[in-house]
Specification:
alpha/beta
């Protein structure tokens, strides 16, 4: 599979169809493959968190989740297919899993939110096999964590979606992956908030122009202003610096 490197992070040149094909192979292989997403925030985190960068570069697949990353890639002479944003892809992924007979486990979000996400998934895609679910507010080590891992193993899902936010979800996956009986693991960020309907996705016209970040910023300015108003310019400055040095 072709790859491109942006600020030390390797991304796969892959679209939704390619992701579906790869997931089929991973489920057949049974190796607990990680499918990570990379947006501007992820690549920025990778610049200051070596462990997080290693996680991304060791993942089975890292797909482009953001128009900003595609633009950054273009500035570096790389060409990526249309981005795959999990909050939009999720329902298509669930329908694909239902079609293939793959089971899923949802892990993350507050208890009421994950419950709503499961209910909506069952209504929208009745044939989806939901192996289990659990909220994300548990101690991430020790007996409580061990009980969650045991619960996942007992459910024996093909696909595990982990939504703790970045980089907590990636670190948890890294620490527990080897002892989980799952075929595919996807970090999921705030996916369950959107699946449950407790948060709204950006209107189509904004999504089609890569402006989801503006919509999210207005939804949660206190939490996200640094990520977008400082993080986005910092990303492009780093990319431009990398582009200049490549030409020297």
């Amino acid at each position: 599979m072709p790859k491109g490197k942006i600020l030390g992070v390797w991304l796969d040149v892959i679209d939704r169809s390619g992701l579906h094909d790869a997931i089929v192979s991973s489920v057949s292989g049974g190796g607990g493959d990680v499918y990570a997403y990379a947006n501007i925030h992820a690549i920025n985190l990778a610049q200051k968190l070596p462990r997080f960068k290693t996680f991304l570069n060791d993942a089975h697949v890292v797909y482009c989740d953001g128009e900003g990353v595609r633009l950054g890639a273009w500035l570096l002479g790389l060409r990526f297919p249309p981005r795959v944003v999990l909050t939009y892809w999720a329902w298509e992924l669930c329908a694909f899993c239902a079609e293939k007979g793959f089971s899923v486990f949802f892990l993350g979000a507050p208890e009421n939110v994950i419950g709503l996400a499961v209910d909506r998934a069952r209504r929208k895609i009745p044939k989806l096999k939901i192996a289990g679910w659990h909220h994300g507010y548990f101690t991430k080590n020790g007996p409580e964590n061990d009980a969650i891992v045991a619960r996942i193993n007992a459910a024996d899902p093909d696909i595990l979606l982990v939504g703790f936010g970045m980089p907590a979800q990636e670190y948890w996956i890294d620490e527990n992956r080897a002892r989980m009986k799952v075929r595919v693991i996807l970090p999921a960020g705030s996916l369950f908030d959107y699946m449950s309907g407790t948060k709204n996705i950006a209107p189509a016209w904004m999504a089609n122009h890569g402006l989801e970040w503006v919509y999210r910023l207005f939804q949660e300015p206190g939490r996200l202003w640094k990520r977008y108003l400082i993080g986005n310019p910092a990303f492009f400055l780093r990319v431009l610096s990398q582009a200049v040095h490549k030409r020297e």
